Amino acid sequence: MNEARLFDLNIEKILEAWDSAHAIRELIANALDEQILSGTQEIDIHKEARGAWVVRDFGRGLRYEHFTQNENPEKLNAVGKVIGKFGIGLKDALATLDRNEVGVEIESAFGVITLTQRSKHDFGDVVTLHAAVAPPRDRKFVGTSIRLSKLSDDDMARAKQFFLRFSGEAIIEETRIGRILERKGEVSRIYVAGLLVAEEENFAFSYDITSLTEAMKKALNRERTNVGRTAYSERVKAMLLQTKSAVVAKVLADQLMALERGTGTDEVRWKDVAVHACKILSASGSYLFVTASQLISNANAVDHARKDGLTVVTVPDNIHSDVAGAKDVNGALMRDISVYQAEWNGSFKFDWIPIDRMTQSEREVFSKTVAIAGIVGGLPKHVKAVRISKTMRPDFLSGLDAAGLWDPGTSSIVIRRDQLRSVRLFAGTLLHELAHARSGYDDVTREFENELTEFLGTVAAAAVPANRNERRRRLFWRRK
Q1: CA atoms in the 13 A half-sphere facing the CB of 30
Q2: Which end of the chain has fewer surrounding CB within 10 Å, N or C?
Q3: Is residue 465 very low, low, confident or very high in pLDDT (cuts 50, 70, 90)?
């Protein structure tokens, strides 16, 4: 009555690439799946005093009928939560352990199962692996216990490293797609529902994917290893586009700057991921986004930004084009050079000098404003005033005190008071700022250079001693 019954496992193909660690991985995966599906306590993995390793769950208990399943409907309905989906994983594991001479004993309330090689029924010349199913020792036994003898500690350690919960990788953020993990070690690891399926040498993070596409479901083959990047890259990308973590954004921003130096991880080569990271970063602190060329052409402005406490982030041109004028995840305008210049301009307080505070000679020079502007067609309609200030904010590009500026915020040209020392100084500064007012461009732009060239041509024409230009020429170049 207590004699073990033999159950033919009917394993047609042995996974030659598997070793004992891969087999233990399947046993641990089954235990974890049962914990999730049954809502029971944490699984237990320990080594007995006599040297055997034990993997135990506290679920519903293994039955010999489980060896007959090809697909498990319960697991298929919990994709992303559990690891397995086919019953053959357990049989593959048992076959691999038997081949490697690891002793296996499975105990539950439904029986005690060991492995043996026996002839198939009625075919004595065909020997296959059988499960020897004996009656249970304890019908109140909770869960399933798998005792493994002659298993090395190294094989168990390698088996556990297939699982996120034993990897030591911290979770940085959870999204609807999965979890972004802190990379630990020389490679990043890609998990599906906590099980390692691939490794990446050039990712900044590890990832645990819990929301699977159909392509990913198909890619999770029988061996569960070496899943290609094409199967999971869209899931990783979608995860990063859902992130709100400043920690993730900071790491990606560092990788963006590394990309400019010819390195950088692969995540920031996805443009929309890089832009999204910049938007998160912008919302998390005081940052200035510039290109490598702007670091050179706007060196003084960038240095001033650093002194103002801004963190400068260098991004590729194609990323900067999407950042400039964009809003961060909180809806605030992201800070590029033009935004910082506007902030710079808006922070300065002028010391205005009205006409009644000017000296007689200053008033005489200032009275030439309309005449000087007339050389180039007069003041544009949108220029509401020409104003004099004792103080002037430093030039945004050079860092030196500017002689004048076009202030579009107040639609006025502002000229530093000391430019009233002579008509020549005042006229030169006024014409320069008129070029800004007419073009709307900064000093370093090609459009401004074109506008200034046109102005200089007009001034040169005004200086030719002939006909109606003669009077203007004398007025313009007359010294006080």
Answers
A1: 27
A2: N
A3: very low
Alpha-carbon separation of residue 219 from 142, 209, 274, 371, 416 (angstroms): 35, 13, 27, 79, 70
List the domains of the chain with CATH numbers.
5-160 (3.30.565), 169-240 (no CATH), 246-346 (no CATH), 355-477 (3.30.2010)
| From 55-59, 173-177, 211-215, 467-471, the region with the lowest mean pLDDT | 467-471
Report, as an integer, the average pLDDT of 162-182: 95
* Residue 196: predicted pLDDT: 92
- What is residue 188's three-state secondary structure? strand
- The token pair that represents 219 in the structure block: 């890619």
Residue 472 has what pLDDT?
40
- CA–CA distance from 323 to each of 272, 319, 442, 454 (Å)? 11, 6, 20, 33
- In degrees and rounded to multiples of 5, residue 476 shows phi and psi of -70, -45
Cα(478)–Cα(154) distance, integer angstroms: 94
- pLDDT tens-digit readout, 33-72: 999 999 999 999 999 999 999 999 999 999 988 887 655 5
Q: Are strands 178-182 and 205-209 parallel, antiparallel or unpaired?
A: antiparallel
The C-alpha atoms of residue 344 and residue 411 are separated, in whole angstroms, by 17
Burial of 217 (0-12, 13-18, 19+ CB in 10 A): middle
Q: Is 2 helix (H, G, I), strand (E, B) or coil?
A: coil
With CA atoms as reference, report the closest residue to 413 among 471, 366, 478.
366
